[in-house]
Amino acid sequence: MRLNNNAMGVALVGAIASLPRVAAWGVAGHEIVATIAQIHLHPSTVEQLCAILPPYANCHLAPVAAWADKVRFHMPWSGPLHYVGGVGDHPSDHCDFGDDGWQGTPGHNVLGAVRNTTMWLEKGYEGAEEALKFLVHFIGDLHQPLHLTGRDRGGNSVKVRFDRRITNLHSVWDSRLIAKSLRTIPQNYTYPLPSRQIESALRGTIYDPYVRQIMYEGVLGRFRDAIDEWTVCPLPELSTRPYPLTEKLEQLPVRGGFFDAVRSSLSSWMRPRKPVEEAPPTDDEIICPHAWAAPMHQLNCDIIWPAELDDPNYQAQIATQGYLELDTPKYAGRIKDEWLVEELLAMGGIRLAATLNYLFAREETAVSPLYKLY
Ligand SMILES: *[C@@H]1O[C@H](CO)[C@@H](O)[C@H](O)[C@H]1NC(C)=O
Ligand SMILES: *[C@@H]1O[C@H](CO)[C@@H](O)[C@H](O)[C@H]1NC(C)=O
Q1: Signal peptide span per the entry (predicted)?
Q2: What does the pLDDT read at residue 367?
């Protein structure tokens, strides 16, 4: 029950936060993350976002959440920004999240992209709309664990079956598990919840009932006590690890000005920490994609990448029995029982909201990283 352990929040020893987990998503997954974020935005954050978002978005994050996937082909440079792969990483037998460096151009990955786009917005550079649309998407990708491994293109090249249909492991996590959940939501979530804050972020989509369920049974239920830890950045522990990233990222300006002001108003729930210089270049004390991603990456070895795929007899079995079926009690059933997908979606939404509130909430309202209803 790794999710439950997480939800209860392992006691924080020193400053390491307990285990976030997440994965990469199809359109619904990205929009669900964005909708959960929308629920937790401070009103003053929404005001600022309205000025940046395109008119069709109606001051809502979800309509732009899948934009980055649509432009991948016009903007080929942005492709590698959707994922990251550690050198030597090979789930399920060996999970290594960057201890030996990263595949591809240094810093040109989802961790660097979250840092770059938040910096872009914070500095108020030209092109805020593009940066915001990327950020909403990349924080979603960061929470799809298969976007955190380079093995077999994050599972895209690994054929499996789901409900007897041939698909691939990555698609199972991007969309099949979510689609299955959408088909099996208890009827009561088709009706509004008695919360204007939740209902006003819903837009009449097919996943509204799922968002209600994740909010009611997850954010307000089993995850409730872990939420504050999800938004913490546990720098000191990480600073002992080598972190080979680009000079480019190392040159990124350190936060200041408005951000410092917000930070000082938040100091009550921030923990003591070492100087920013010791953190991995993508991480600081407010926004830390590496620290958030590391425990989610580990899920690839713990549960996501089926060990059967590397069984020496598996190739021969494909000929007689077909590709490995994942819509089984042992796989999809366990993931559902542990609320793993829901936890990743909730975590992505909460962290996106916390990030945007840090960047945009007026100081006097920024007493907490989240606009909470509980
Ligand atoms: C950083 O983000 C901006 C805004 O979206 C983008 O134009 C730029 O190419 C990004 N740079 C890198 C190195 O990803
Ligand atoms: C909806 O129904 C489920 C069980 O079918 C129950 O666990 C849950 O508490 C109900 N939610 C609300 C908001 O009443």
Answers
A1: 1-24
A2: 55
